[in-house]
Protein 1
Amino acid sequence: MQLGLIGLGKMGGNMRERVRRAGHEVVGYDRSPELQDVDSLEALVGALQAPRVVWVMVPAGDPTRETVEALGDLLEAGDVVVDGGNSKFTDDQVHADLLAQKGIGYVDAGVSGGVWGLQNGYALMVGGSKEDVAKVQPIFDALKPPLDKESDSPAGEGAGFVHAGPVGAGHFAKMVHNGIEYAMMQAYGEGYELLAAVDLIEDVPGVIASWTQGTVIRSWLLDLLVRALQEDPGLDDITGWAADSGEGRWTVEQAIEHAVPMPAISASLFARFSSRQDDSPTMKAVAALRNQFGGHAVKAREVEDPA
Amino acid sequence: MQLGLIGLGKMGGNMRERVRRAGHEVVGYDRSPELQDVDSLEALVGALQAPRVVWVMVPAGDPTRETVEALGDLLEAGDVVVDGGNSKFTDDQVHADLLAQKGIGYVDAGVSGGVWGLQNGYALMVGGSKEDVAKVQPIFDALKPPLDKESDSPAGEGAGFVHAGPVGAGHFAKMVHNGIEYAMMQAYGEGYELLAAVDLIEDVPGVIASWTQGTVIRSWLLDLLVRALQEDPGLDDITGWAADSGEGRWTVEQAIEHAVPMPAISASLFARFSSRQDDSPTMKAVAALRNQFGGHAVKAREVEDPA
Amino acid sequence: MQLGLIGLGKMGGNMRERVRRAGHEVVGYDRSPELQDVDSLEALVGALQAPRVVWVMVPAGDPTRETVEALGDLLEAGDVVVDGGNSKFTDDQVHADLLAQKGIGYVDAGVSGGVWGLQNGYALMVGGSKEDVAKVQPIFDALKPPLDKESDSPAGEGAGFVHAGPVGAGHFAKMVHNGIEYAMMQAYGEGYELLAAVDLIEDVPGVIASWTQGTVIRSWLLDLLVRALQEDPGLDDITGWAADSGEGRWTVEQAIEHAVPMPAISASLFARFSSRQDDSPTMKAVAALRNQFGGHAVKAREVEDPA
Amino acid sequence: MQLGLIGLGKMGGNMRERVRRAGHEVVGYDRSPELQDVDSLEALVGALQAPRVVWVMVPAGDPTRETVEALGDLLEAGDVVVDGGNSKFTDDQVHADLLAQKGIGYVDAGVSGGVWGLQNGYALMVGGSKEDVAKVQPIFDALKPPLDKESDSPAGEGAGFVHAGPVGAGHFAKMVHNGIEYAMMQAYGEGYELLAAVDLIEDVPGVIASWTQGTVIRSWLLDLLVRALQEDPGLDDITGWAADSGEGRWTVEQAIEHAVPMPAISASLFARFSSRQDDSPTMKAVAALRNQFGGHAVKAREVEDPA
């Protein structure tokens, strides 16, 4: 089938390649001339036969909103727009309503796989009506990881793709996936730090590598940690500065909205916030209090010697 | 080679079987007559040719201590005792010192694999001298998972076995492994709860199954969660009561000892404590305070109607 | 001066009394006939001379929104509306904009003091323009706690009242106050629980009472905990079920919005969520995982004996 | 009565002064000649009439242990030793047993009050037998804060002093006090940071000062925060580096020992650990993982330009 794909960056570019390898025709548009197959949204829409499927893979927020609005003007009833970006799930109903005015369908797709997706396939969590999802299914099948027949995984055909519910459900499921990801990374990080803190452990990378088979905590993330430690055994070349994208924040916000206790995921999110602070106002206040009641020494900000 | 194995319960029994399948001779002792190959420690030691390797697989604490002491009386210089149980790493040096008085070697081995170990192999983290570890190596090789040549795991030969350092390092590494396990389980649990809390997600087990391929959070634990949800899609048949064994507690204690921040693992440990409380004294105090300052209603303990 | 006061419940009723004791005239309206001075908003507005000050003390959300809208129709340029309820600070600018269309001023006032406010005074955190705040100042002065000249408190005249910033700043400051309150209550609760958990402490209420003078942790909340324990030394008559109002949630949401690490306050919020769960889906998942990998016993839901 | 006092530093020196002001005779010993009344423990014991009370106010651990052992040699049956330092409660029974061999009594006293104690009095939490505590009571009465008759505190005579239980109970109660202190300080710190993070709040010190009367969160610590902000409104002169003493760690250890969930106090302890790290190994691992799966940029350690 044909697919229109908007946004050909790190993710979109690899997805174009994977869909093409599966035998589909992909017409790609990107603002960068060197990446694009066509040079405008109009040209992209014109190159596709109705009913069209157009996949949007641009940054969440304004760029996605503007792209969806533009497609609302260009597409026609029976076409389907897929938002495969990292949109907040609450944006999806807005997008769907906007397109529904013209009879255009909408599917939201949470996509996991990162830079490994071209090779391994992309896991897909989608939301939308059965009818709309069905129109995109050949593309989903091309993107998702192939069934691993050697694997003893219990998920069977359910691995790598789910139609999670109505519009919004795909991005919600992907959001929760990322929240879990935060806490798993934090868990490995805390364990790594404790191993590295004691003289007793003489081979920290070796311990972590040993965990990759036969243990309860083996995982793909653990494999990646092994790789990272092979490249830099003491993690000496990087600093402990960790960005966060929206999904972790939204996961905790939703937990609060629904009164779900979420101590581990929230702790992991806050650890990232802390990692980016040069100095912590909270801990300044704590230090100031200790000084007030106990006369405890505080670390004064170092002052340049005026001489 | 020959192995003496003490403790033939759920773990020890399967390990005997796996070692035998690898072609070694195992002489097993257990207090239960129906499990034992020989009926006493004396008989076990008598059945082995020096230099002997005796693997202790009994509960941590007093049972292990008493077994090590008894072996100290029965074994001779050049023999090696392996503690493969869940001992606290601080016990290991005590055991090693006790046996060293008679020239007997000591190796501590953290073992992961649970009920799946017979089939998949057991991951092993060991501590001790090079010489002592070498004496046990054929048994370690029999127990550990075979190298998965199909796998693209980066650990290679290092997967499933590590000599982590001197006496104590094996149990320390296993302890940290279990601490990480707590936070990973908590992460999946929190994510599951949020998915289940919203109407938007129509297929919670399906979402979780979809995560098993192509995602960042795929892991063996996630596969197990898929299995659990296949057996009981709403987890209706079990209660949220989670035991904890010593390793999680010791991990947090060690973090405190070494000033390692450990917010996610500790939160996971505390969540288990909470899960076992019928009522929380902390939250009683909170409720009492709300009542004091705001006249907020408290839930009074229900009183049986005297009529 | 004159004050129109809408909402004469537990808080509003006591505030009317305190303002009257200070010599001001209060015209109160409430939906309940037995509480009201006048029987409609129209009558309330009619009873006041311009420029009027009308204080809204009704539940946050729709009730406040509707009251502000109604006042927008009834009041005139130069009048001022004060929202003294527990509105989210983001509502304030909406209210202010709505009233500004008619030249009516708006002040948001976070009010602390609970059932003790009539006796001790109410702490006030207000937001708005200097001009609008000035019009309400005599009422603020009547409500706030009197300056304690015996006290060695360093705040001096600044105790009990602050003009924190523009519209919204009052409710924001009150929101943060409540977030801190959550963690303080949790701190005392956790300490209480640990004292009560050990046989070593023979007089738990006595220990807590002793902390009320000379210690670092003495506070008004601690005094209230002493009272609660005097009434019920083992807190046997209440259950550990703790509600939460919006402010705690909003505080954590704002922390996430501004990338402020907030581990203690968020932990306190989540503890309240947990306190209201009969069973925890998170911990069901954890228990299910333990069962899967270790064959660990789970607590099955008890089934009534069919016989 | 007479009191022997060992250790005349910041705390001990002020305590000597307060006891003397109450009309008692204090014989003080310190290693520093400029502080001491007598120049040896022997001289101190010799200057007191039996039955003697000797108060030890030296650093916890070895210094206290050695002092207690020395007093065991010098004192006689019927005398009482008080350990008023920051000893771990588990040390107390060891000390008591050691002295009991010679019929010497032992009382452990947790002391709160810091640099403010001379002026305000010291709160005392004590453990020991009724008989031993009674022998020291006049000294306790001299040290503790006077009953504040103006106060409406509910504790009455129970404020500032408690006999909490047998040997060890005093230090246990003080340990819990300090754990609570950690979380209260963290709570104020987190609230301060959020206020300071938003433009909406134009007067952060003013907001905090306003909280000191009439609010739910008023406390002595809050007064101290007001003072700190008066001295340095933006806390610009100090860094967010917060030490921790043993009590916070022991509180969390005891919570783990007794399966008491302690999320807020532990989070506060870990925040202090983080505050002292130049770089976080945990967050290095997290950053390395993000880089592995997403190609996300990491902050490389800055390298000096070789040119």
Protein 2
Amino acid sequence: MKARIFITLKPGVLDPQGKAIHHALNGLGFDGVSDVRAGKVIEMDVADGTDDETLKAMCEKLLANTVIENYRIETE
Amino acid sequence: MKARIFITLKPGVLDPQGKAIHHALNGLGFDGVSDVRAGKVIEMDVADGTDDETLKAMCEKLLANTVIENYRIETE
């Protein structure tokens, strides 16, 4: 089973990587961009039947820093 | 308009970050995980009506290293 975890910075948390990307896009002539935020995806092959609770525990304990990051779990 | 770019390493490209996450998950007792790959998400606010060609150009020129990375564009 595939699980995908999307980790993004909470609103209000400074994002220097996003700022740098934004600046570079402007420098390349892409003017329509008004905001950029950078985050992470983690794709995992997990055992079939792994429940959402387990995936949530992985996020809370290791994958996301819940003080400054939100996460979203997607399974297929 | 929101655009989301998902950037993942191509299959076969070594992923030390994913390996480290995998190892750490095992260390925490999550045994059902057989593979982990780490990637990036870039969330952008772009001008309404920005076409897919422009977003593709951003990926090709700056956001993704197309030698080793795949990208996927999602707009809403």
